[in-house]
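To assess whether ligand presence alters the predicted conformation, the chain was also submitted together with CO-5-methoxybenzimidazolylcobamide. Input:
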Amino acid sequence: MNDEDDDLILADLPDDELVQQMFDDLYDGLRDEIEEAVHILLDRGWEPYNILTEALVGGMTIVGKDFRDGILFVPEVLLAANAMKGGMAILKPLLAETGAPRVGKMVIGTVKGDIHDIGKNLVSMMMEGAGFEVVDIGINNAVEKYLDALESEKPDILGMSALLTTTMPYMKVVIDTMAEKGIRDDYIVLVGGAPLNEEFGRAIGADAYCRDAAVAVETAKTFMARRHNSMATAV
Ligand code: B1M
């Protein structure tokens, strides 16, 4: 985006300009610069969550718009995603070390045909930070992979992520298969991803659609509390 800032010293920039510079650096896929800027903001006392949402997700939103409009192409977006992951890797342990007690367990993965994993990774980080144990089964998961993970991990929650209008219907395949096997109601099923909405979540039989990672955490906590209450009543 910028060609004239070769000699720029990130640490000299005030916060707002540094965040703007991070948008540019993310756009240009400059992982080292993103990592340096994240460290600078942390040193200045920024909360990890705010760095994540304001600087990294904010920057990725700009990338997304230009990708949609044909200004950026897959190789450039991959570099941007790589830079974003560099920043997220620094924040991950900080978000996870809240000392919150374990509140539940979630298996999460992107559905078959979908390799977009940044949103899923973000949800995993935030859930871990909120005290959930998270088993991330990665990308491009066929229904069998989800079922295997449910059986071996015995989570409370199944999370599914899809970023493509062509892959989101696969969530229904997973939920329908769970229903056929008689295990649908054993789990809280949460779904998310940019092209989804509440109506879609309801239509496919999920328990809830989560707009973003913060909503995923709140929704998971609400469902876990309900689950504990109903178990207590049943005893
Ligand atoms: Co792709 N891509 N991409 N892409 N890509 C989108 C999704 C697209 C909207 C871009 C566009 O046109 N504007 C478009 C989809 C259009 C559509 O379906 N209608 C698109 C396309 C078309 C494609 C390809 C088909 C391009 C091609 O090859 N011609 C291809 C498909 C690959 C595949 O999956 N089979 C493709 C490839 C790629 C890259 C590999 C280059 C790269 C992915 C790298 C990676 O993830 N490792 C990429 C990227 C980066 C994007 C955009 C630019 C950014 C996605 C992202 O990371 N957002 C994206 C445009 C956009 O979304 N604006 C785009 C940031 C992330 C934090 O947000 O993922 O929405 P998000 O997650 C949020 C919430 O949605 C929610 O919480 C998260 C955090 O707040 N959430 C959940 C997500 N999952 C959840 C699960 C939950 C709960 C909440 O469970 C409980």
